[in-house]
Amino acid sequence: MDILTATAQWLTDPAHWQGTNGIPWRLLEHVALSGVSLILSGCVAMPLGLWIGHTGRFSWLVVSSANAWRALPSFAVIGLLVPFTTSIDRNLGFTLYPTVIAMIVLAGPPILVNSYQGVAGVDRDLVEAARGMGMRERQVLFGVEMPIALPVLATGVRSAAVQVIATATLGAEFGFGGLGRYLVLGEANQDNGELFGGVVLVAALALTTLALFTLLERRVVSSGLRTRTAN
Amino acid sequence: MSGEPLVRWDWLFAHLGPIADRVGQHIYLAGLAVGIGFAISFVLAAISIRRRRLFPAISVLATGVYTIPSFAVFPVLVVVTGLSTLSVEIPLVLYTLVLFVPNIVAGFDAVPADVLEAADGLGYTSSQRWWQVELPLAVPLVVAGLRLATVSTIGLVTVSAILGDSFGGLGYYILDGYHRTFTTEILVGGLLSIALAALADFGCVLLQRLLTPWAAARNVAR
User: Fold this and answer.
1) How many domains would you assign to chain B?
2) Neighboring chain A residues of B68 at a CB cutoff of 8 Å
3) Is the model more confident about B222 or about A162?
């Protein structure tokens, strides 16, 4: 009961809703960092995955990147980047770059693997039929393979987004702000209100991201495909 | 960090003992969580296989649990259990359940119904059928789950370094190195924890080969 009151008090205190350590600013930092990393990562991973899936070339790259990715603990990746990013920029390299780069690395493989699997899993007869109708390779990819691959693609983007939002919390331990900052401060100051307030915010953001991307997935997938996957 | 070499070999060689202790702690924390998680998951999976309607609920709950970062869960447990091994192990075990249960259920689902019928027809008792037919055929997916859970747990152990010097395994060096801007420590902690995860991944692949010799034989036959 004590913790609940402390948390509620911390969350509702107007002082915690303004300034650069306020909740809106920290939330913005968190979402901006995650969004930028996700977009940068997607810009590379998605075209690459689609191309590999379409041509069937270099598919070993997908498998090995997925395996290597699993063995990379984000906490270690952020830490390992610090010595190298600080040699490029002493300030941002100590506070911002390690987290951004680690999140880009984290988001890549799920998008890559799913773009690849989505396109590679399209019925080859359909692709042949499209070619037989005189479609160019690019039209086959964007007009036939991609729409059919969309559910798988969207799942990849969702899992990347959810993981990045959750893992970006670690950045607070390595000089970056974001919502994780409250966990670090709450623990350091032994302020349970702040700690649990931070936990509530982080959990809420992660679950909201999961829900939003699940909704988005439903919106982008054509209804014809939806009934087919339901069968 | 300028002026300092990237790796101070003298520090490294002077700290081989403590580094080995951290590796030991890392393996202990991860191994305990994977072991306990595996046992609990088998029970949960058995329940979900018998009572199918529970499974979607369990999966949704699992996705929700996995979405909440360990970074937020560890400090909460400290408040609940006090600072002890429990505050690290409880979240780690919970995360392994999320990876184990769906894989175990999928493993047993993948056993063809024909095979089960054939076993019944041959007069296997239900426990014989389970040990000699179902379990061996479920192994590939169960081990796939073990692989995921082991590697992710080894990664998560590093995060427990936020709870203080007495936890974190190799993660301790990553965080301490960052706070002291001491590159050597960061590299030792980071590279060794990645190596540990990669080694465990490789170990699981070997385990699968050992447990399912027929899969390799089939590949050779082709």
Assistant:
1) 1
2) 166, 202-203, 206-207
3) A162
- Between A99 and A60, the more confident residue is A99
Min Cα distance B47 → chain A (Å) is 25
Within-domain flag for B217: no
Kindly state whether A15 is in contact with chain B, defined as any CB-CB distance less than 8 angstroms. no
Would you say residue B86 lies in a domain? yes
Give a yes or no: residue B80 inside a domain.
yes
CATH code of the domain occupying A2-9+27-230: 1.10.3720.10
Tell whether the model's pLDDT for residue A9 goes beyond 50: yes
Nearest CA-CA distance, residue A75 and chain B, Å: 6
Residue pair B71/A182 in contact by the 8 Å Cβ criterion = no
pLDDT of residue B217: 65
CB contact under 8 A, A170 and B69: yes
Q: What is the rounded CA–CA span in Å between residue B166 and residue A110?
A: 34
**Residue B124 sits in a domain of what CATH number?**
1.10.3720.10
**B125: burial class by Cβ within 10 Å (0-12, 13-18, 19+)?**
exposed
Chain B residues near residue A192 by CB distance under 8 angstroms: 79
Domain residues for the domain of B107 are 9-211
> What pLDDT, in 10s, does the model give residues A155-175?
999 999 999 999 999 999 898
Q: Is residue B110 part of a domain?
A: yes
Report the alpha-carbon distance of residue B171 to residue A79 in Å, rounded.
Answer: 9
- Closest CB to B75: pick one of A162, A195, A207: A195
pLDDT, tens digit (0-9, with 9 covering 90-100), for A23-46? 999 999 999 999 999 999 999 999
Chain B interface includes A176 (CB < 8 A): no
Q: What does the alpha-carbon distance between residue A101 and residue A37 come to, in Å, rounded to a whole number? A: 7
Name every residue whose Cβ is closer than 8 Å to that of residue A5 and which is 6 or more positions away in sequence. none
- Mean pLDDT (chain B) is 87
- A43 CA to centre of own chain: 13
* Cβ contacts of A208 within 8 Å, gap of 6 or more: none
What pTM was estimated for this model as a whole? 0.86
DSSP A184-197: HHHHHTT-HHHHHH
Cβ of residue B162 closer than 8 Å to a chain A Cβ: yes
- For chain A, the structural domain boundaries read 2-9+27-230
CA distance B163 to B149: 22
Number of CB pairs < 8 Å for A and B? 123
* For testing contact with chain A, the best of B23, B173, B174, B184 (most A CBs within 10 A): B174
